[in-house]
UniProtKB/TrEMBL annotation:
Protein's UniProt keywords contain ATP-binding: no
Superkingdom per UniProt: Eukaryota
Entry keywords, A to Z: Signal
Organism: Lophium mytilinum
Signal sequence residues: 1-18
Protein's UniProt name: Vacuolar protein sorting-associated protein 62
Pfam family, one: Vps62
């Protein structure tokens, strides 16, 4: 494996060569959105890497209550929103996922941090005016492995959207949100671990929840994030991923709830899809399904980026919980 020093050099020393091309391709994207974009450490044992967003359509079929739904053919990121209806549509794997089909595994980033041949992120900019800008860095994975709880594998699902959000004031990062399962954590940018200007996110093995430090993270109690416990995410410095190298870029208009791609060739209609990006939760009668204390082995796939509260008042989504702007990194490694 390339050493951390060489990876850093590739991302920052190499950025001198790579940045002009990226800036030319995305000339209208605010430069600070790129300069401060998070870098993600995937776990050293990660089996389900970042995935090509469009590949999810090529390997699934739209269903509702496990019955095929009529829709455009072929299904693309440009017409996915045509599946919107009062009934929720589920992008259901065409292959039994217990066989671990290859599309679920995604694409491991190369030595520069790029997912070659796979557009695996969507970067969405919400300019509130008066110098206040929120940049959402949306990460896509074809599969979420839920982990082991008391010897039981629970909480798996096809499709996985996670994200960081950075709140900028006059082009300067102030706060950073890390999505984690049903909620997440917010930190002051100044105290975060960084490569150069870019904050680091540590990705939970299989679950893809984002954390500000490596190590163990218990999420039995949301918002508490203890260094060990019953339901644990594991993070380390396995493979470094730079989501900006293979991403779609958009400006978001909260008044119209609309997205405008910075590059006219970029697909956009998939962001308006209101259905699920994976299978519907299998019923108890399905031989693949098991439950442990009411928790299923296979859960329902997630909604997409538009459902992540892109027009927030605070850096945290509004969910009835306090929004804590953490000024220290906890828990610390033991």
């Amino acid at each position: 494996m390339i050493s951390k020093i060489l990876i850093t050099a590739a991302l920052f020393g190499g950025a001198v060569m790579g940045a002009p091309l990226r800036e030319k391709r995305q000339a209208a994207v605010p430069q600070f959105v790129l300069d401060y974009a998070p870098l993600v450490w995937l776990h050293s044992q990660e089996a389900y890497n970042p995935s090509d967003i469009s590949a999810q359509l090529a390997n699934t079929q739209p269903q509702h209550e496990f019955v095929a739904v009529a829709g455009p053919s072929p299904l693309t990121l440009d017409n996915l929103n045509q599946l919107n209806s009062p009934n929720t549509t589920y992008l259901t794997s065409t292959v039994d996922i217990t066989t671990n089909p290859s599309f679920l595994k995604g694409v491991k980033p190369d030595g520069s941090g790029k997912t070659n041949g796979a557009v695996s992120a969507a970067i969405i900019v919400n300019d509130h005016g008066s110098g206040n800008v929120d940049a959402f860095y949306m990460y896509f994975y074809a599969f979420n492995w839920g982990g082991i709880v008391l010897g039981q594998n629970l909480g798996n699902h096809v499709g996985d959207w996670e994200h960081n959000m950075i709140r900028f004031k006059n082009g300067v990062p102030d706060l950073v949100w890390y999505s984690q399962h049903a909620n997440g954590e917010a930190f002051k940018y100044s105290i975060l671990e960084k490569h150069g200007l870019r904050p680091i996110a540590y990705c939970g093995n299989g679950s893809h929840a984002n954390y500000a430090i490596k190590g163990k993270h218990d999420h039995t109690i949301p918002n508490l994030n203890l260094p060990d416990g019953l339901i644990v995410d594991n993070t380390d410095q396995g493979t470094l991923w730079d989501p900006t190298l293979s991403a779609y870029y958009y400006a978001y208009n909260p008044t119209a709830s609309s997205f405008t791609p910075y590059d006219s060739s970029t697909p956009v209609n998939y962001l308006s899809y209101t259905g699920r990006w994976g299978d519907e939760q299998y019923p108890d009668s399905d031989k693949r399904q098991k439950k442990f204390f009411g928790q299923p082995k296979y859960a329902t796939g997630p909604t997409g980026p538009a459902d992540k509260q892109l027009n927030r008042t605070d850096v945290c989504p509004s969910n009835g919980k306090d929004c804590i702007h953490r000024g220290i990194l906890v828990p610390r490694d033991l």
